[in-house]
């Protein structure tokens, strides 16, 4: 099982959890496993079956956009981070 | 020529007369050296002597004249030199002040700092990577804070304390009571005051030497280039995407590093964008997300200490950029989770297809560069 870090803005879609375990040997399979349990997460992370351009996915700290995208391999002890942009700072 | 393993002692007047043709080794400490020294001397403090002298003077037959302030430390150094095989060692027995009084060659090193500056920054001057030269760099540096809010407050306070000579502050807002939980530049009695004004009061009270430049405006397409051009390093503590993209594109055009911080409830992100050397904000997030994916602090809330932590990480990055020391977060993003007190790090890459800093832009700049050089 890989560990998936859920960013704070998406936590409400997974019942408030910060880290989830998921099975699958690619980013796509790992996400599908999460979507099966947390359907609300799907529309925030994907658009038309592809990764949303607003959410970056990192496997062991590496952006999958510079790897194989959704087909990027995920090992059993790998850490997956979902990371949308955050605006907050000043006001 | 002395016996092997021994050295000679000479008086100061003899040393003044016979110094020519000898390599002069000053074994005092750096602080003493900085108060004046023999121009042709090489500083090898006694504390580092054994570790460095054979690198400084590899040829052991070199005629040496060793001195300190009164002749005691230099005697120990001379003894050591003779023991390890230097064959022509002369120790100056007497006070260095006498050398100076007799008209021996003398120079004062250029004073990079005033006495007041040396006193104020003494703890930083002791750090090898800073010292007088580094402090001079900090004092000559111009750092622009975008936002005098949650991130800009701690960054501004510590950058002013560190002696960043010019701190520009861009903020068009006024102090609100709800800011005080985290925006530590401001105070309860300044509610309603423009934030740039409040920031100036706090920062100049902390360090009157800092030149605080108020920019009580909202960063927009009409002023961003001029503002960015006037500073060396930009600390981005804004609260909205429009400003972040605007700032990114301008800083890439003018090749100014931007220290990026963002916060949300218990989570913070910090990285440093160094144009073309690493990715830019658009490489990371090519387009602005919809509001429901990225609510502002005013909507989502934020823990007060979080911007304190992230803002100080930003100040640390800004100081290293000014000093040109250490390793910045260029190409890395640090993720901080205050709820579990944990840091994660992700790698960031420059996107070759980035509209702001991609390969096409780099090529275009390379083609334009000679034309610009010829015109100037």
What is the structure about, briefly put?
Chain A is α+β, with helices and mostly antiparallel strands and 91 residues long. Chain A has helices at 27-37, 39-45; strands spanning 2-5, 19-22, 46-47, 50-51, 55-59, 62-63, 79-84.
Which structural traits does this protein have?
heterodimer, A: 91 residues, alpha+beta, 5-stranded mixed sheet, two-stranded antiparallel sheet, 2 helices, 20% helix, B: 376 residues, alpha/beta, 8-stranded mixed sheet, 13 strands, elongated, disordered C terminus
How would you describe this structure to a colleague?
The complex is a heterodimer of chains A (91) and B (376). Chain A is of the alpha+beta class and 91 residues long. Chain A is 20% helix and 27% strand. Chain A has helices spanning 27-37, 39-45; strands at residues 2-5, 19-22, 46-47, 50-51, 55-59, 62-63, 79-84. A five-stranded mixed β-sheet of chain A has the order 2-1-7-5-6, with helices on one face. Chain A starts with a strand and ends in a 7-residue tail after the last strand. The mean pLDDT of chain A is 90. Chain B has 376 residues and is of the alpha/beta class. In chain B, the strands form two sheets. An eight-stranded mixed β-sheet of chain B has the order 8-7-6-9-10-11-12-13, with helices on both faces. In chain B, helix 9 (152-162) runs parallel beside helix 10 and helix 9 (152-162) packs across helix 15. Chain B starts with 7 loop residues before the first strand and ends with a helix. The interface between A and B is large, with 26 and 50 residues.
């Amino acid at each position: 099982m890989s560990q998936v870090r859920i960013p704070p803005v998406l936590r409400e879609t997974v019942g408030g959890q910060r880290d989830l375990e998921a099975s699958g040997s690619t980013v796509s399979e790992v996400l599908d496993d999460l979507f099966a349990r947390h359907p609300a997460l799907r529309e925030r992370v994907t658009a038309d079956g592809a990764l949303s351009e607003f959410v970056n996915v990192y496997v062991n700290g590496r952006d999958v956009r510079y790897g194989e995208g959704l087909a990027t391999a995920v090992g059993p002890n790998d850490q997956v981070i979902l990371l949308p942009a955050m605006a907050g700072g000043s006001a | 020529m002395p016996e092997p393993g021994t050295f000679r002692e000479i008086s100061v007047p003899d040393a003044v007369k016979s110094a020519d043709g000898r390599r002069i080794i000053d074994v005092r400490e750096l602080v003493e050296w900085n108060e004046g020294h023999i121009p042709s001397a090489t500083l090898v403090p006694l504390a580092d002597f054994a570790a460095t002298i054979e690198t400084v003077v590899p040829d052991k037959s070199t005629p040496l004249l060793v001195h300190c302030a009164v002749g005691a430390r230099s005697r120990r150094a001379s003894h050591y030199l003779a023991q390890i095989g230097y064959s022509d060692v002369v120790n100056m027995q007497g006070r260095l002040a006498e050398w100076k009084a007799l008209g021996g060659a003398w120079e004062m090193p250029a004073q990079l700092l005033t006495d007041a500056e040396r006193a104020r920054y003494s703890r930083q001057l002791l750090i090898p990577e800073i010292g007088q030269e580094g402090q001079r760099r900090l004092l000559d540096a111009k750092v622009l804070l975008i936002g005098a809010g949650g991130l800009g407050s701690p960054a501004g306070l510590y950058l002013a304390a560190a002696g960043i000579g010019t701190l520009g502050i861009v903020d068009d807002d006024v102090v609100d009571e709800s800011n005080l939980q985290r925006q530590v530049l401001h105070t309860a009695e300044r509610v309603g005051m423009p934030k740039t004004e409040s920031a100036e009061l706090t920062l100049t009270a902390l360090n009157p030497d800092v030149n605080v430049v108020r920019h009580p405006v909202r960063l927009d397409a009409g002023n961003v280039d001029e503002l960015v051009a006037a500073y060396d390093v930009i600390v981005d503590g804004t609260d909205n995407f429009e400003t972040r993209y605007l700032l990114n594109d301008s800083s890439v055009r003018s090749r100014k590093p931007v220290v990026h911080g963002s916060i949300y409830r218990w989570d913070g992100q910090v990285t440093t964008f160094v144009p073309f050397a690493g990715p830019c904000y658009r490489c990371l997030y090519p387009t602005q997300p919809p509001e429901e994916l990225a609510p502002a602090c005013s909507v989502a809330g934020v823990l007060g200490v979080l911007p304190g932590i992230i803002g100080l990480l930003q100040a640390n990055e800004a100081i290293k950029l000014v000093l040109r020391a250490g390793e910045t977060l260029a190409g890395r993003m640090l993720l901080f989770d205050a709820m579990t007190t944990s840091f994660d790090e992700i790698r960031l890459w420059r996107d070759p297809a980035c509209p702001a800093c991609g390969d096409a832009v780099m090529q275009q700049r390379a083609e334009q560069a000679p034309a610009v050089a010829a015109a100037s």
